[in-house]
Amino acid sequence: MMLNGEIFLKEGEQMSNIEEVVQIPCLADNYGYLVHDPDSKLTASIDSPSIDPIEDVLRQNGWLLTHIFNTHHHYDHTGANLELKERWKCKIVGSAKDVDRIPGIDQRVSDLDIFSFGNHEVKVIDVPGHTRGHIAFYFPGEAKLFCGDALFALGCGRIFEGTPEQMWKSLQKLQDLPDDTKVYCAHEYTLANANFAVTVEPQNEVLSKRVQEIKNLRDKGKPTVPSTIGLEKSTNPFLRPMSRDIQANLNMLGAELVDVFAETRRRKDNF
User: Fold this and answer.
1) What is the spatial distance between Cα 100 and Cα 147, in angstroms, rounded to a whole number?
2) 90 is in which domain, residue-wise?
3) Is residue 1 part of a domain?
4) Residue 126 pairs with which residues in a beta bridge?
5) Does residue 4 register a pLDDT over 90?
């Protein structure tokens, strides 16, 4: 039961994971997500790549869109903000650093802010690098991370507005989350990322196995997302500049980790 906004469980009763997540292919290779809390009837769209696929899922489930959580300002993440807000009167949540670039923003959030979504706690994590105002939304109770274009399956976002130092610091924040955290990134880039990853760490047997699994999934037209923090830590070269194999393959044995990361990012940019 709930009393004064707090949840109290009866003896022997356990709190269930009631949050639902629906993954929505949008545009050429984007993923949108609808996060729904059946108890409160709240539904949030993680970014707004395209209005029609999002509204199709809302109608199919009989859900009302109450929120949009924007990870960053790029058009393929905010393009449907204003139209969805006009139709659904939903609240748009975005970075305080991007108040001038998030269309229709209502609630400004900053690093380490915590807010409620129904019975769920949402923590904001600043992850600049791809853009200066990029944030991630972390649901600690459900071990779910919505990270936009900061961290991809086997990759990370291009550095458009930040520095390698900023991006590496952002990725360190994410890799410090529990290993079982599900990583919901915003693009289906995994196969291309995998093809690059094996060029910088071909000795990684876990990576080799994962690459084959990715190829099998894509051959069947299935998504490779979500992954987990633990899987990314063991296979994603952008989280592994400490790997002596990667350092050796880049001719950077003993180099600073941020420099190894920066060289890995440079090579991926030109891959």
Assistant:
1) 21
2) 12-269
3) no
4) 135
5) no
Q: Which pLDDT tens digit goes with each residue over 164-213?
A: 999 999 999 999 999 999 999 999 999 999 999 999 999 999 999 999 99
Compute the distance between CA of residue 50 and CA of residue 201 in angstroms, rounded to an integer.
Answer: 36
**CATH number of the domain residue 174 falls in:** 3.60.15.10
Residues with Cβ within 8 Å of 266's Cβ and at least 6 positions away in sequence, in order, are none
Distance CA 21, CA 13 (A): 24
Residue 123, beta-bridge partner list: 114, 138
- Put simply, whether the predicted model's pTM sits higher than 0.90 gets the answer yes
Let me know if residue 3 belongs to a domain. Answer: no
Q: Which residues are identified as catalytic? A: 72, 74, 76-77, 130, 149, 187
Rounded (5°) CA angle 154-157-162: 140
Q: Determine, yes or no, domain membership for 252.
A: yes
Which SS3 state, helix, strand or coil, does residue 227 take? Answer: strand
Mean pLDDT of the chain: 93
In a domain, 196, yes or no: yes
- In angstroms, the CA 50 to CA 112 distance is 29
| Identity at 26, one-letter amino acid code | C
Tokens of 33: 């997500």
